[in-house]
Amino acid sequence: MPTLLLFDIDGTILRMKPGCSRNIFAEILKDVFGVHVPDEAMPGFAGMTDLRILREIADSTNLQFEEIEKNIDVIWEKMLHIFRQYSNRENIWLLPGAIKLINAFSCNKNYQLGLCTGNFKENAYLKLKTFDLDKFFPFGAYGSDLEDRNLLPPLAIERGNKYLNQNSFSNSNTVIIGDSLRDIQCARFNSLPVVSVATGAFSSFELSKYNPDLLFEDFSDFKFVENQIIKSFN
After folding, report:
1. How many domains are there within the chain?
2. Final residue of a domain: which of 86, 105, 139?
3. With DSSP H G I counted as helix, E B as strand and the rest as coil, what are the percentages for the chain, rounded to 5?
4. Among 4, 43, 86, 100, which has the highest number of CB atoms less than 10 A from its own CB?
């Protein structure tokens, strides 16, 4: 059976220009609820689901999360509209070696690619489409599915099995690939191995404290990374 590689997006495959996402969240909440969100009320976004970001903003302001939940479809729609304006190669940068690593595993019949990302679904594919990478990830679990990132891998596994119309994936052949401490915590919560890369908000020293199964500074030497993953998880 193939091994399922669940990729994070931001900080792992690509990065947005600093401040873009925070400004968009603030703009949307101002537009929908008339609430000003000061910068100090913004949580750290690394590894967070979009739903969790919205909850933490609500907790830091006078906004009720129940009101956010009632208006969530409007929020996603407006947010996607604004993100489209920023989804270009001036505002989104591809991280070293990421596209070559993804291409390599997409050509390997022993592996299947999926997503485990904090982005809401439509935005996840919008960002990936900037570099024509959306086609490599036919399913996943997203930040619009569940607030708790730890609950996303089982959902991605379930969708992977549905996609292939067979029970190919389980905890025994699924790997998380991400850049944040929360990716490691998410993997450990689900008893999954994890590949960490220090191209996001956390240094390799910080990530190493959480003992990922594999740790890379970046994916520049994609062939080496590919071989290490194959050697460790097949």
Report:
1. 2
2. 86
3. 50, 15, 40
4. 4
pTM check: above 0.90: yes
Q: What is the pLDDT of residues 81-121, one digit of tens each?
A: 999 999 999 999 999 999 999 999 999 999 999 999 999 99
**Dihedral-angle region of residue 97 (phi above 0 means left; psi in -120 to 50 means alpha; beta otherwise):** left
- Please say whether the dihedral angle defined by the alpha carbons of residues 12, 13, 19 and 22, taken in this order, is positive or negative: negative
Quote the domain boundaries for residue 62. Answer: 20-86
Alpha helix positions (H), the chain: 20-33, 50-60, 65-70, 72-86, 98-106, 121-129, 152-164, 181-189, 204-208, 222-232
212-234 per-position pLDDT tens digit: 999 999 999 999 999 999 999 97
Instruction: Indicate if 146 and 188 belong to the same structural domain.
Output: yes
For residue 36, how many C-alpha atoms fall within 13 Å in the half-sphere facing its CB? 1
Residue 160 sits at the vertex; the CA angle it makes with 73 and 129, to the nearest 5 degrees, is: 55
- 66 and 159 housed in the same domain: no
Tokens representing residue 166 in the block: 């067979």
Specify the residue for token string 């489409």.
Answer: 129
